[in-house]
Specification:
The complex is a heterodimer of chains A (about 425) and B (about 120).
Chain A (H helix, E strand, L loop, with lengths): L1 H6 L10 H4 L9 H9 L3 H16 L4 E4 L10 E6 L12 E5 L9 H14 L3 E4 L6 E6 L1 H13 L15 E2 L13 H11 L1 H5 L9 E4 L8 H4 L2 E8 L3 E2 L1 H11 L1 H9 L7 E4 L2 E4 L9 H5 L4 E2 L3 E8 L13 E7 L4 H21 L6 H8 L1 H8 L42 H7 L1
Parallel strand pairs in A: 6-7, 7-8
Antiparallel strand pairs in A: 1-2, 2-3, 3-5, 4-5, 8-13, 9-12, 10-11, 13-14
Chain B lengths: L1 E4 L2 E4 L14 H11 L5 H17 L5 H7 L8 H14 L4 H8 L13
Antiparallel strand pairs in B: 1-2
Helix pairs in contact in B: 3-4
Chain lengths: ~425, ~120
Amino acid sequence: MANKQDEKGTNNPGLNTPLLDELEDGPWPSFVSDLKQWSETKPQVAQLLNQLEESYENRWNYWTGTVLNVSGYGGGVIARLSDKADKYPDLAEFHTIRVIPPPGFVYSTERLRNLADICERHGAGILQLHGLTGDALALGFDNESTFEAAEELMANGWDLGGSGAALRSLQCCVGQARCEMACFDTMKTTRGLTNHYIDFLHRPEFMYKFKIKISGCANDCANAMIGSDMPIIGTWRGPMQIDQQKVAEYIDEKGVEHVIDNVITRCPTRCLSLKGKELVVDDENCVRCMHCINVMHKALLPGKDRGVTICLGAKRTLKIGDTMSSVIVPFLKLETEEDFENLTDLIDRVWEFWNDNGMDHERIGEFIARVGLGTFLEGCGLEPDPRMVQSTRTSPYINFEELAPGRFEGESEQQPKVWNREPESSEAAG
Amino acid sequence: MAIEVGGKLIEVDEEGFLVDRADWSEEVSEAIANRDGIELKDEHVGLIDYFRDYYEEHEVHPTMHVLVQRLGKMIGDRFHEHKQYEKFLYMLFPRDPVSELCKLAGLPKPLPSEHDG
Protein backbone atom coordinates (compact mmCIF):
# COMPACT_ATOMS: atom_id res chain seq x y z
CA MET A 1 0.00 0.00 0.00
CA ALA A 2 3.02 2.28 0.38
CA ASN A 3 3.18 2.92 -3.34
CA LYS A 4 -0.39 4.03 -3.44
CA GLN A 5 0.28 6.44 -0.58
CA ASP A 6 2.93 8.21 -2.67
CA GLU A 7 0.66 8.52 -5.67
CA LYS A 8 -2.10 10.17 -3.70
CA GLY A 9 -3.33 13.44 -5.14
CA THR A 10 -0.74 13.51 -7.87
CA ASN A 11 -2.91 12.05 -10.63
CA ASN A 12 -4.61 15.26 -11.57
CA PRO A 13 -3.26 18.71 -10.73
CA GLY A 14 -6.82 20.08 -10.64
CA LEU A 15 -7.77 17.69 -7.87
CA ASN A 16 -7.57 18.63 -4.23
CA THR A 17 -9.26 15.86 -2.30
CA PRO A 18 -7.52 14.97 0.98
CA LEU A 19 -10.64 13.43 2.56
CA LEU A 20 -11.53 11.35 -0.49
CA ASP A 21 -7.93 10.12 -0.68
CA GLU A 22 -8.54 8.30 2.58
CA LEU A 23 -10.94 6.08 0.70
CA GLU A 24 -8.08 4.82 -1.44
CA ASP A 25 -6.43 3.14 1.54
CA GLY A 26 -6.74 -0.53 2.23
CA PRO A 27 -6.77 -3.58 -0.01
CA TRP A 28 -10.20 -2.88 -1.52
CA PRO A 29 -11.04 -1.45 -4.92
CA SER A 30 -11.83 2.24 -4.61
CA PHE A 31 -14.20 4.38 -6.63
CA VAL A 32 -11.94 7.34 -5.88
CA SER A 33 -8.98 5.74 -7.67
CA ASP A 34 -11.17 4.82 -10.61
CA LEU A 35 -12.71 8.26 -10.91
CA LYS A 36 -9.33 9.98 -10.57
CA GLN A 37 -8.04 7.97 -13.46
CA TRP A 38 -11.17 8.72 -15.43
CA SER A 39 -10.98 12.45 -14.66
CA GLU A 40 -8.01 12.73 -17.01
CA THR A 41 -10.40 11.97 -19.88
CA LYS A 42 -13.54 13.69 -18.62
CA PRO A 43 -13.10 17.11 -17.00
CA GLN A 44 -16.49 16.97 -15.25
CA VAL A 45 -15.35 13.95 -13.23
CA ALA A 46 -12.59 16.02 -11.64
CA GLN A 47 -15.19 18.64 -10.73
CA LEU A 48 -17.43 15.89 -9.40
CA LEU A 49 -14.68 14.68 -7.08
CA ASN A 50 -13.93 18.22 -5.93
CA GLN A 51 -17.58 18.84 -5.16
CA LEU A 52 -17.83 15.57 -3.27
CA GLU A 53 -14.75 16.58 -1.30
CA GLU A 54 -16.46 19.83 -0.43
CA SER A 55 -19.54 17.90 0.63
CA TYR A 56 -17.43 15.73 2.92
CA GLU A 57 -15.76 18.79 4.38
CA ASN A 58 -18.93 20.79 5.04
CA ARG A 59 -21.23 17.80 5.59
CA TRP A 60 -23.68 19.19 3.14
CA ASN A 61 -25.31 17.89 -0.03
CA TYR A 62 -24.99 20.23 -3.00
CA TRP A 63 -27.46 18.52 -5.34
CA THR A 64 -30.96 19.82 -6.00
CA GLY A 65 -33.65 17.69 -7.56
CA THR A 66 -35.63 18.83 -10.57
CA VAL A 67 -37.91 17.30 -13.19
CA LEU A 68 -36.85 16.10 -16.61
CA ASN A 69 -38.84 13.71 -18.72
CA VAL A 70 -37.95 11.84 -21.85
CA SER A 71 -40.80 11.94 -24.36
CA GLY A 72 -43.45 9.36 -23.48
CA TYR A 73 -41.80 8.45 -20.18
CA GLY A 74 -42.56 9.67 -16.67
CA GLY A 75 -39.59 7.94 -15.08
CA GLY A 76 -36.14 6.82 -16.02
CA VAL A 77 -34.32 10.11 -15.49
CA ILE A 78 -33.19 11.36 -12.10
CA ALA A 79 -32.54 15.03 -12.72
CA ARG A 80 -30.02 16.81 -10.51
CA LEU A 81 -28.66 20.35 -10.55
CA SER A 82 -25.57 21.40 -8.64
CA ASP A 83 -25.80 24.29 -6.17
CA LYS A 84 -22.13 24.97 -6.88
CA ALA A 85 -22.62 25.48 -10.61
CA ASP A 86 -20.60 28.71 -10.66
CA LYS A 87 -17.62 26.89 -9.20
CA TYR A 88 -18.11 23.64 -11.11
CA PRO A 89 -19.72 24.65 -14.43
CA ASP A 90 -19.81 21.12 -15.87
CA LEU A 91 -21.93 19.93 -12.97
CA ALA A 92 -24.68 22.52 -13.52
CA GLU A 93 -26.85 19.72 -14.93
CA PHE A 94 -25.75 16.25 -13.89
CA HIS A 95 -28.63 13.86 -14.53
CA THR A 96 -28.76 10.12 -14.08
CA ILE A 97 -30.46 7.72 -16.48
CA ARG A 98 -31.88 4.45 -15.16
CA VAL A 99 -31.62 1.62 -17.65
CA ILE A 100 -33.71 -1.52 -17.16
CA PRO A 101 -31.26 -4.45 -17.05
CA PRO A 102 -31.57 -7.43 -19.39
CA PRO A 103 -33.52 -10.42 -18.03
CA GLY A 104 -31.23 -12.72 -16.10
CA PHE A 105 -28.82 -9.83 -15.48
CA VAL A 106 -26.36 -11.38 -17.93
CA TYR A 107 -24.74 -9.18 -20.56
CA SER A 108 -22.74 -10.21 -23.56
CA THR A 109 -19.53 -8.18 -23.70
CA GLU A 110 -20.80 -6.64 -26.92
CA ARG A 111 -24.00 -5.35 -25.29
CA LEU A 112 -22.12 -4.03 -22.30
CA ARG A 113 -19.67 -2.24 -24.58
CA ASN A 114 -22.60 -0.79 -26.48
CA LEU A 115 -24.12 0.54 -23.25
CA ALA A 116 -20.78 1.91 -22.09
CA ASP A 117 -20.09 3.60 -25.43
CA ILE A 118 -23.43 5.41 -25.47
CA CYS A 119 -22.99 6.60 -21.89
CA GLU A 120 -19.45 7.72 -22.52
CA ARG A 121 -20.34 9.57 -25.70
CA HIS A 122 -23.18 11.58 -24.17
CA GLY A 123 -22.45 11.74 -20.46
CA ALA A 124 -19.71 11.49 -17.89
CA GLY A 125 -19.25 7.81 -18.67
CA ILE A 126 -19.83 6.57 -15.13
CA LEU A 127 -21.96 3.43 -14.79
CA GLN A 128 -23.32 1.78 -11.71
CA LEU A 129 -24.53 -1.73 -12.45
CA HIS A 130 -26.94 -3.54 -10.17
CA GLY A 131 -26.60 -1.81 -6.88
CA LEU A 132 -29.51 -2.14 -4.49
CA THR A 133 -31.79 -0.43 -7.01
CA GLY A 134 -31.57 -3.34 -9.40
CA ASP A 135 -31.07 -1.28 -12.52
CA ALA A 136 -28.10 0.04 -14.45
CA LEU A 137 -27.42 3.70 -13.67
CA ALA A 138 -25.61 5.97 -16.10
CA LEU A 139 -24.42 9.27 -14.61
CA GLY A 140 -23.60 12.71 -15.84
CA PHE A 141 -25.94 13.90 -18.59
CA ASP A 142 -27.03 17.49 -19.17
CA ASN A 143 -30.50 18.40 -20.45
CA GLU A 144 -29.72 18.01 -24.13
CA SER A 145 -27.54 14.93 -23.88
CA THR A 146 -30.15 13.18 -21.71
CA PHE A 147 -32.54 13.22 -24.65
CA GLU A 148 -29.84 12.26 -27.14
CA ALA A 149 -28.61 9.40 -24.95
CA ALA A 150 -32.14 8.18 -24.28
CA GLU A 151 -32.91 8.15 -28.01
CA GLU A 152 -29.74 6.26 -28.76
CA LEU A 153 -30.25 3.80 -25.91
CA MET A 154 -33.75 3.03 -27.12
CA ALA A 155 -32.61 2.68 -30.71
CA ASN A 156 -30.12 0.09 -29.47
CA GLY A 157 -32.76 -1.92 -27.64
CA TRP A 158 -32.29 -0.61 -24.09
CA ASP A 159 -35.21 0.66 -22.09
CA LEU A 160 -35.47 3.28 -19.35
CA GLY A 161 -37.58 3.21 -16.24
CA GLY A 162 -37.89 2.62 -12.55
CA SER A 163 -37.64 6.05 -10.97
CA GLY A 164 -40.17 8.28 -9.26
CA ALA A 165 -43.34 7.13 -7.56
CA ALA A 166 -43.43 4.04 -9.71
CA LEU A 167 -42.71 0.36 -9.61
CA ARG A 168 -38.93 0.15 -9.38
CA SER A 169 -36.80 -2.21 -11.46
CA LEU A 170 -37.15 -5.69 -10.06
CA GLN A 171 -34.23 -7.38 -8.39
CA CYS A 172 -33.71 -11.10 -7.89
CA CYS A 173 -31.16 -13.65 -6.72
CA VAL A 174 -29.45 -15.98 -9.22
CA GLY A 175 -32.22 -18.53 -8.75
CA GLN A 176 -32.49 -21.98 -10.21
CA ALA A 177 -30.10 -21.06 -12.99
CA ARG A 178 -27.10 -21.26 -10.68
CA CYS A 179 -28.28 -22.32 -7.23
CA GLU A 180 -29.65 -25.65 -5.97
CA MET A 181 -31.41 -24.03 -3.01
CA ALA A 182 -33.79 -21.91 -5.10
CA CYS A 183 -37.36 -23.04 -4.57
CA PHE A 184 -38.76 -21.40 -7.69
CA ASP A 185 -37.55 -19.82 -10.89
CA THR A 186 -36.71 -16.32 -9.67
CA MET A 187 -35.41 -15.07 -12.98
CA LYS A 188 -38.46 -16.20 -14.90
CA THR A 189 -40.67 -14.48 -12.33
CA THR A 190 -38.62 -11.29 -12.53
CA ARG A 191 -38.81 -11.24 -16.29
CA GLY A 192 -42.51 -12.07 -16.27
CA LEU A 193 -43.37 -9.35 -13.78
CA THR A 194 -41.15 -6.80 -15.56
CA ASN A 195 -42.90 -7.46 -18.86
CA HIS A 196 -46.34 -7.58 -17.29
CA TYR A 197 -45.88 -4.33 -15.38
CA ILE A 198 -43.67 -2.48 -17.84
CA ASP A 199 -46.10 0.47 -17.91
CA PHE A 200 -45.68 0.84 -14.17
CA LEU A 201 -41.92 1.07 -14.60
CA HIS A 202 -42.20 3.70 -17.32
CA ARG A 203 -44.84 6.01 -15.93
CA PRO A 204 -45.11 6.77 -12.22
CA GLU A 205 -48.54 7.27 -10.73
CA PHE A 206 -48.38 5.67 -7.26
CA MET A 207 -48.40 7.44 -3.91
CA TYR A 208 -44.78 6.53 -3.49
CA LYS A 209 -42.27 4.02 -4.75
CA PHE A 210 -43.00 0.31 -4.77
CA LYS A 211 -40.24 -2.28 -4.87
CA ILE A 212 -40.52 -5.97 -5.56
CA LYS A 213 -37.51 -8.17 -4.84
CA ILE A 214 -37.38 -11.85 -5.41
CA SER A 215 -35.32 -14.43 -3.52
CA GLY A 216 -35.28 -18.14 -4.24
CA CYS A 217 -35.12 -19.22 -0.60
CA ALA A 218 -34.98 -17.87 2.94
CA ASN A 219 -31.25 -17.16 2.58
CA ASP A 220 -32.55 -14.08 0.79
CA CYS A 221 -29.56 -13.17 -1.37
CA ALA A 222 -31.56 -10.33 -2.96
CA ASN A 223 -32.04 -8.63 0.46
CA ALA A 224 -35.75 -8.70 -0.16
CA MET A 225 -37.00 -8.90 3.43
CA ILE A 226 -35.37 -5.63 4.49
CA GLY A 227 -35.23 -3.80 1.21
CA SER A 228 -38.47 -4.13 -0.67
CA ASP A 229 -42.17 -3.41 -0.28
CA MET A 230 -43.06 -6.82 -1.62
CA PRO A 231 -40.51 -9.58 -1.10
CA ILE A 232 -41.30 -12.86 -2.86
CA ILE A 233 -39.38 -15.58 -1.04
CA GLY A 234 -39.09 -19.23 -2.03
CA THR A 235 -40.24 -21.83 0.47
CA TRP A 236 -41.70 -25.34 0.59
CA ARG A 237 -44.50 -27.36 2.15
CA GLY A 238 -44.09 -30.63 3.98
CA PRO A 239 -40.85 -32.32 5.00
CA MET A 240 -37.43 -31.32 3.70
CA GLN A 241 -35.44 -33.86 1.72
CA ILE A 242 -32.96 -35.80 3.85
CA ASP A 243 -30.33 -38.19 2.57
CA GLN A 244 -29.58 -40.13 5.81
CA GLN A 245 -26.50 -41.78 4.31
CA LYS A 246 -24.95 -38.37 3.56
CA VAL A 247 -25.88 -37.27 7.09
CA ALA A 248 -23.95 -40.23 8.47
CA GLU A 249 -21.00 -39.43 6.19
CA TYR A 250 -21.06 -35.81 7.37
CA ILE A 251 -21.08 -36.93 11.02
CA ASP A 252 -18.20 -39.31 10.36
CA GLU A 253 -16.22 -36.55 8.71
CA LYS A 254 -16.86 -33.71 11.19
CA GLY A 255 -17.77 -35.55 14.39
CA VAL A 256 -20.99 -35.56 16.40
CA GLU A 257 -19.96 -32.54 18.46
CA HIS A 258 -19.54 -30.36 15.40
CA VAL A 259 -22.99 -31.36 14.14
CA ILE A 260 -24.63 -30.69 17.52
CA ASP A 261 -22.91 -27.33 17.93
CA ASN A 262 -23.44 -26.06 14.43
CA VAL A 263 -26.65 -27.64 13.27
CA ILE A 264 -28.82 -29.07 16.04
CA THR A 265 -28.51 -26.28 18.63
CA ARG A 266 -28.63 -23.52 16.05
CA CYS A 267 -32.07 -24.46 14.83
CA PRO A 268 -34.21 -21.45 15.86
CA THR A 269 -37.25 -23.59 16.67
CA ARG A 270 -35.31 -26.55 18.13
CA CYS A 271 -36.93 -28.94 15.73
CA LEU A 272 -33.82 -31.01 14.94
CA SER A 273 -32.50 -34.00 16.89
CA LEU A 274 -30.02 -36.81 16.32
CA LYS A 275 -30.92 -40.47 16.68
CA GLY A 276 -27.56 -42.20 16.41
CA LYS A 277 -26.37 -41.07 13.01
CA GLU A 278 -29.83 -40.27 11.80
CA LEU A 279 -31.24 -36.74 11.65
CA VAL A 280 -34.82 -36.43 12.88
CA VAL A 281 -36.84 -33.33 11.97
CA ASP A 282 -40.01 -32.20 13.68
CA ASP A 283 -41.50 -30.91 10.43
CA GLU A 284 -44.45 -29.15 12.05
CA ASN A 285 -42.13 -26.80 13.88
CA CYS A 286 -39.65 -26.22 11.07
CA VAL A 287 -39.77 -22.56 9.97
CA ARG A 288 -37.72 -23.13 6.78
CA CYS A 289 -34.90 -20.83 7.94
CA MET A 290 -32.40 -22.74 5.75
CA HIS A 291 -29.67 -22.88 8.41
CA CYS A 292 -29.29 -26.68 8.60
CA ILE A 293 -29.54 -26.94 4.83
CA ASN A 294 -26.78 -24.37 4.37
CA VAL A 295 -24.45 -26.24 6.72
CA MET A 296 -25.20 -29.78 5.53
CA HIS A 297 -25.91 -28.88 1.92
CA LYS A 298 -25.03 -32.35 0.60
CA ALA A 299 -27.34 -34.21 2.97
CA LEU A 300 -30.30 -31.84 3.16
CA LEU A 301 -32.35 -30.08 0.52
CA PRO A 302 -35.59 -28.06 0.54
CA GLY A 303 -38.74 -30.17 0.28
CA LYS A 304 -40.28 -31.22 -3.00
CA ASP A 305 -43.55 -29.26 -2.87
CA ARG A 306 -42.13 -25.80 -3.47
CA GLY A 307 -43.66 -22.37 -3.83
CA VAL A 308 -43.34 -18.82 -2.55
CA THR A 309 -44.19 -16.79 0.51
CA ILE A 310 -45.28 -13.25 -0.26
CA CYS A 311 -44.62 -10.54 2.30
CA LEU A 312 -45.32 -6.82 2.41
CA GLY A 313 -43.98 -3.72 4.00
CA ALA A 314 -40.21 -3.34 4.37
CA LYS A 315 -38.88 0.21 4.14
CA ARG A 316 -36.38 2.65 5.57
CA THR A 317 -37.40 5.35 8.04
CA LEU A 318 -39.95 7.78 6.70
CA LYS A 319 -43.20 8.29 8.56
CA ILE A 320 -42.54 5.42 10.91
CA GLY A 321 -39.19 3.81 11.64
CA ASP A 322 -37.50 1.09 9.63
CA THR A 323 -39.64 -1.97 9.20
CA MET A 324 -39.14 -5.46 7.90
CA SER A 325 -41.74 -7.22 5.84
CA SER A 326 -44.41 -9.43 7.29
CA VAL A 327 -46.19 -12.36 5.70
CA ILE A 328 -49.28 -11.67 3.64
CA VAL A 329 -49.58 -14.92 1.68
CA PRO A 330 -47.94 -17.85 3.50
CA PHE A 331 -47.77 -20.17 0.52
CA LEU A 332 -48.42 -19.78 -3.18
CA LYS A 333 -47.42 -22.18 -5.93
CA LEU A 334 -45.51 -20.41 -8.69
CA GLU A 335 -44.98 -22.83 -11.54
CA THR A 336 -47.65 -22.60 -14.21
CA GLU A 337 -49.08 -19.66 -16.12
CA GLU A 338 -52.16 -19.86 -13.93
CA ASP A 339 -50.07 -19.51 -10.77
CA PHE A 340 -48.43 -16.49 -12.30
CA GLU A 341 -51.83 -14.98 -13.00
CA ASN A 342 -52.75 -15.53 -9.35
CA LEU A 343 -49.66 -13.57 -8.38
CA THR A 344 -50.34 -10.64 -10.69
CA ASP A 345 -53.96 -10.66 -9.57
CA LEU A 346 -52.82 -10.40 -5.95
CA ILE A 347 -50.41 -7.57 -6.79
CA ASP A 348 -53.21 -5.73 -8.63
CA ARG A 349 -55.53 -6.02 -5.64
CA VAL A 350 -52.87 -4.84 -3.20
CA TRP A 351 -51.95 -1.89 -5.42
CA GLU A 352 -55.54 -0.96 -5.99
CA PHE A 353 -56.38 -0.78 -2.29
CA TRP A 354 -53.16 1.02 -1.40
CA ASN A 355 -53.53 3.42 -4.31
CA ASP A 356 -57.15 4.26 -3.55
CA ASN A 357 -56.64 4.84 0.16
CA GLY A 358 -52.98 5.65 0.71
CA MET A 359 -51.77 9.16 1.49
CA ASP A 360 -49.09 11.03 -0.36
CA HIS A 361 -45.58 9.68 0.25
CA GLU A 362 -46.89 6.65 2.10
CA ARG A 363 -45.16 3.33 1.54
CA ILE A 364 -47.30 0.24 1.81
CA GLY A 365 -45.76 -0.75 5.15
CA GLU A 366 -46.83 2.57 6.66
CA PHE A 367 -50.21 2.25 5.04
CA ILE A 368 -50.78 -1.13 6.72
CA ALA A 369 -49.54 0.26 10.02
CA ARG A 370 -52.02 3.13 9.72
CA VAL A 371 -55.17 1.31 8.63
CA GLY A 372 -54.43 -1.95 10.45
CA LEU A 373 -53.86 -5.33 8.92
CA GLY A 374 -57.48 -6.41 9.35
CA THR A 375 -58.78 -3.52 7.25
CA PHE A 376 -56.06 -4.08 4.71
CA LEU A 377 -56.85 -7.77 4.32
CA GLU A 378 -60.53 -6.99 3.96
CA GLY A 379 -59.75 -4.39 1.30
CA CYS A 380 -57.61 -6.79 -0.68
CA GLY A 381 -59.95 -9.73 -0.22
CA LEU A 382 -57.41 -11.87 1.64
CA GLU A 383 -58.01 -14.33 4.48
CA PRO A 384 -56.42 -13.62 7.86
CA ASP A 385 -53.93 -16.24 8.96
CA PRO A 386 -52.07 -16.88 12.23
CA ARG A 387 -48.81 -16.85 10.28
CA MET A 388 -49.17 -13.10 9.73
CA VAL A 389 -47.04 -11.99 12.67
CA GLN A 390 -46.02 -8.51 13.70
CA SER A 391 -42.56 -9.54 14.79
CA THR A 392 -40.83 -12.82 14.35
CA ARG A 393 -42.52 -15.74 16.10
CA THR A 394 -44.30 -13.58 18.70
CA SER A 395 -47.56 -11.77 18.43
CA PRO A 396 -49.89 -12.29 15.49
CA TYR A 397 -51.62 -9.21 14.11
CA ILE A 398 -54.98 -10.84 14.62
CA ASN A 399 -56.07 -13.02 17.53
CA PHE A 400 -58.01 -16.13 16.64
CA GLU A 401 -60.82 -17.54 18.70
CA GLU A 402 -59.67 -21.12 18.28
CA LEU A 403 -56.08 -20.23 19.21
CA ALA A 404 -56.96 -18.02 22.17
CA PRO A 405 -56.45 -19.42 25.69
CA GLY A 406 -59.52 -21.11 27.17
CA ARG A 407 -61.85 -19.16 29.43
CA PHE A 408 -63.59 -20.16 32.61
CA GLU A 409 -67.35 -20.24 32.67
CA GLY A 410 -68.76 -16.78 33.19
CA GLU A 411 -65.47 -15.06 32.33
CA SER A 412 -66.02 -12.01 30.15
CA GLU A 413 -65.02 -12.01 26.51
CA GLN A 414 -61.44 -11.32 25.71
CA GLN A 415 -60.62 -7.72 24.92
CA PRO A 416 -59.76 -6.68 22.29
CA LYS A 417 -62.20 -8.91 20.52
CA VAL A 418 -60.73 -11.93 18.88
CA TRP A 419 -61.28 -12.74 15.25
CA ASN A 420 -63.78 -15.47 14.56
CA ARG A 421 -63.19 -17.33 11.36
CA GLU A 422 -66.82 -18.28 10.65
CA PRO A 423 -68.35 -15.47 8.60
CA GLU A 424 -71.90 -16.18 9.91
CA SER A 425 -70.99 -15.69 13.56
CA SER A 426 -68.96 -12.54 12.82
CA GLU A 427 -71.99 -11.11 11.02
CA ALA A 428 -74.17 -11.98 13.97
CA ALA A 429 -71.70 -10.40 16.36
CA GLY A 430 -71.15 -7.21 14.51
CA MET B 1 -40.45 36.66 -21.75
CA ALA B 2 -43.85 37.18 -23.24
CA ILE B 3 -46.19 35.69 -25.82
CA GLU B 4 -48.49 37.69 -28.07
CA VAL B 5 -52.20 36.82 -28.03
CA GLY B 6 -54.65 38.88 -30.08
CA GLY B 7 -52.29 41.84 -30.17
CA LYS B 8 -51.76 41.76 -26.39
CA LEU B 9 -48.51 40.76 -24.72
CA ILE B 10 -48.89 38.13 -22.00
CA GLU B 11 -46.00 37.66 -19.62
CA VAL B 12 -44.71 34.09 -19.14
CA ASP B 13 -41.63 32.59 -17.50
CA GLU B 14 -38.90 30.90 -19.50
CA GLU B 15 -40.73 27.56 -19.52
CA GLY B 16 -44.00 29.16 -20.61
CA PHE B 17 -45.92 29.25 -17.31
CA LEU B 18 -48.12 32.32 -16.87
CA VAL B 19 -46.72 34.91 -14.50
CA ASP B 20 -50.20 36.22 -13.67
CA ARG B 21 -52.90 33.54 -13.52
CA ALA B 22 -55.60 36.12 -14.27
CA ASP B 23 -54.23 36.43 -17.81
CA TRP B 24 -55.60 33.02 -18.74
CA SER B 25 -58.05 32.60 -21.58
CA GLU B 26 -58.65 29.90 -24.16
CA GLU B 27 -56.64 31.87 -26.70
CA VAL B 28 -53.71 32.11 -24.30
CA SER B 29 -53.79 28.37 -23.72
CA GLU B 30 -53.77 27.84 -27.48
CA ALA B 31 -50.79 30.15 -27.85
CA ILE B 32 -48.86 28.24 -25.17
CA ALA B 33 -49.75 24.96 -26.89
CA ASN B 34 -48.44 26.32 -30.20
CA ARG B 35 -45.24 27.33 -28.46
CA ASP B 36 -44.83 23.74 -27.17
CA GLY B 37 -45.84 22.17 -30.48
CA ILE B 38 -49.12 20.63 -29.29
CA GLU B 39 -52.28 20.78 -31.34
CA LEU B 40 -55.26 21.30 -29.01
CA LYS B 41 -58.20 18.98 -29.64
CA ASP B 42 -61.33 18.22 -27.64
CA GLU B 43 -59.54 15.79 -25.31
CA HIS B 44 -56.89 18.38 -24.51
CA VAL B 45 -59.43 21.13 -23.88
CA GLY B 46 -61.54 18.85 -21.68
CA LEU B 47 -58.51 18.04 -19.53
CA ILE B 48 -57.54 21.71 -19.29
CA ASP B 49 -61.05 22.49 -18.03
CA TYR B 50 -60.80 19.62 -15.55
CA PHE B 51 -57.52 21.04 -14.25
CA ARG B 52 -59.00 24.51 -13.85
CA ASP B 53 -62.10 23.22 -12.06
CA TYR B 54 -60.03 20.98 -9.81
CA TYR B 55 -57.69 23.82 -8.92
CA GLU B 56 -60.56 26.12 -8.08
CA GLU B 57 -62.06 23.52 -5.77
CA HIS B 58 -58.94 22.12 -4.10
CA GLU B 59 -56.41 24.95 -4.58
CA VAL B 60 -53.94 22.35 -5.76
CA HIS B 61 -53.42 20.83 -9.18
CA PRO B 62 -54.44 17.18 -9.76
CA THR B 63 -51.57 14.72 -9.69
CA MET B 64 -51.08 11.82 -12.06
CA HIS B 65 -52.33 9.63 -9.24
CA VAL B 66 -55.63 11.52 -9.07
CA LEU B 67 -56.06 11.47 -12.84
CA VAL B 68 -55.53 7.73 -13.11
CA GLN B 69 -57.67 7.06 -10.07
CA ARG B 70 -60.70 9.20 -11.00
CA LEU B 71 -60.68 9.34 -14.78
CA GLY B 72 -59.08 5.92 -15.33
CA LYS B 73 -62.02 4.24 -13.59
CA MET B 74 -64.19 5.09 -16.61
CA ILE B 75 -62.19 2.71 -18.79
CA GLY B 76 -62.53 -0.47 -16.77
CA ASP B 77 -62.90 -2.06 -13.38
CA ARG B 78 -59.50 -3.73 -13.23
CA PHE B 79 -56.58 -1.79 -11.82
CA HIS B 80 -54.46 -2.79 -14.79
CA GLU B 81 -56.95 -1.14 -17.12
CA HIS B 82 -56.74 2.20 -15.30
CA LYS B 83 -53.14 2.32 -16.34
CA GLN B 84 -54.24 2.50 -19.96
CA TYR B 85 -55.61 5.93 -19.21
CA GLU B 86 -52.16 7.09 -18.19
CA LYS B 87 -50.81 5.82 -21.49
CA PHE B 88 -53.47 7.90 -23.23
CA LEU B 89 -52.41 10.99 -21.28
CA TYR B 90 -48.82 10.44 -22.34
CA MET B 91 -50.04 10.17 -25.93
CA LEU B 92 -51.69 13.59 -25.66
CA PHE B 93 -48.78 15.16 -23.80
CA PRO B 94 -45.63 13.10 -24.40
CA ARG B 95 -43.50 15.07 -21.96
CA ASP B 96 -44.83 15.22 -18.40
CA PRO B 97 -48.64 15.53 -18.83
CA VAL B 98 -49.29 17.05 -15.40
CA SER B 99 -46.77 19.83 -15.78
CA GLU B 100 -47.87 20.55 -19.36
CA LEU B 101 -51.55 20.65 -18.37
CA CYS B 102 -50.79 23.02 -15.48
CA LYS B 103 -49.03 25.25 -17.96
CA LEU B 104 -51.92 25.19 -20.43
CA ALA B 105 -54.50 25.73 -17.69
CA GLY B 106 -52.58 28.72 -16.37
CA LEU B 107 -51.83 27.11 -13.00
CA PRO B 108 -48.57 27.49 -11.05
CA LYS B 109 -45.69 25.23 -12.02
CA PRO B 110 -45.78 21.90 -10.11
CA LEU B 111 -43.02 21.51 -7.55
CA PRO B 112 -40.37 18.92 -8.37
CA SER B 113 -41.37 15.67 -6.75
CA GLU B 114 -39.17 14.10 -4.13
CA HIS B 115 -40.20 10.69 -5.34
CA ASP B 116 -37.05 9.72 -7.20
CA GLY B 117 -33.73 8.53 -5.98
